[in-house]
Amino acid sequence: MISVEEALGLILENIREIGFEKVDIKEALGRVIAEDVYARRNIPPWDNSAMDGYAVIVNDVEGASKENPAVLKIIESLPAGYISESKLKSGEAIKIMTGAPMPNGADAVVMAEYTENDGGKVRIFKRPEKGDHIRKAGEDVKDGQLVIKKGQLIRPSEIGMLASMARSIVSVYQRPRVAILATGDELVDLDEEICGAKIINSNTYAVGAQIQECGALPILLGIARDRQDELEEKLRLGMNADIIITSGGVSVGDYDHVKDVVKGLGGDLRLWKVAIKPGKPLAFSILNGRPMFGLPGNPVASMVTFEIFVRPAILKMMGHKKIFRPIIYATIKDDLKKKENRRHFIRASVQSDGDGYVVETTGDQGSHMMTSMIKANGLIIFHENDTAIKAGDKVKVMLLDRSFEYRKDAGY
Ligand code: AMP
Ligand code: MG
Prior knowledge:
Strand order of the largest sheet: 7-4-6-5-9-8
Number of strands: 28
Strand content: 25-35%
Distance between the termini: 45 Å
Radius of gyration: 31 Å
Structural class: alpha/beta
Number of helices: 7
Shape: elongated
Largest sheet: 6 strands, mixed
Helix content: 10-25%
Bound molecules: adenosine monophosphate, magnesium ion
């Protein structure tokens, strides 16, 4: 058995980045950008007003106050989207809206709140400093500047930046196609008749959803019976995918043929059995030049090993720089015990409590128990060398999602 770190290191070493494709900006959310984006213009393009108010010459309004306002002649009202033709002269003001380019001659904007409009004149109650409420050309982005680095996840803010650079098409990493094959004589598929000693194949759908959650494309290969010929035939269908996944059939049972079949197809088994619970029998091979994961069949074991080993691999392939779930420290509410040797990933519910996090386990941790997975938003990491955790201890928790329930004392 090898450690989680060794297994992950070995897997990631074998992952190459996938190719690129061009997509419309409207389809780019959640993708990873495959090009460095350089600015093609200044943002803002010109000095402009940050406020609704009056563009003035600071010298004209020296000493202006509520009691002793400066009075200026309004020569124009300038909305955003228009350039003033005038050059401001002493004694004049231009009424200006947020975003309108600064008129020539003006060197400050006085907020409307500090003024009073009197027909053709404006009373100014406050002396501005030079440059007040002026957004300078290029102060956000300078023409030619690197604004988004290759490998960045495209979030709504990147979409906004791309749009302001007039980029309607952007180069992104492709979505890997990830084939998934369930194995087991006991399995029937969704909507098939279920009788006798059969159970429904749920792993295909849970793991398929995990693949989708990574932004990759699941290819469902269905179910293979625990017979070498059928396993081989079905596995061949997925051998041109970017990543191949099987569930079940990698343990030490009489009908666990996956490893042999992979070898028979020319695959190279790189690791089998990791010091982890759930998920010990995880196998990793190179098959047809592709990474291939043999996930254990127990539903939670397959999901947890996916989280820990497959997700980072898919994200790396997709060009992501941030491939790991966040790890936080939380105060645990339960006592936990285990033997040494394996690292346990314990389904748990974690909640922000104002100045930190609290965590509690979500029930029975059997690797077939989906209910405790449903309740979990994190996995407590119980290290292989430790045997006891006491209520009140700080423990490491890997977050499976990042949102917390609203609480008055832990809100914004
Ligand atoms: P295995 O790893 O093949 O020995 O399977 C371990 C356990 O997981 C057995 O109880 C299987 O019935 C169950 N199992 C295997 N594959 C699936 C699947 N696709 N969906 C639900 N349960 C499964
Ligand atoms: Mg099986």
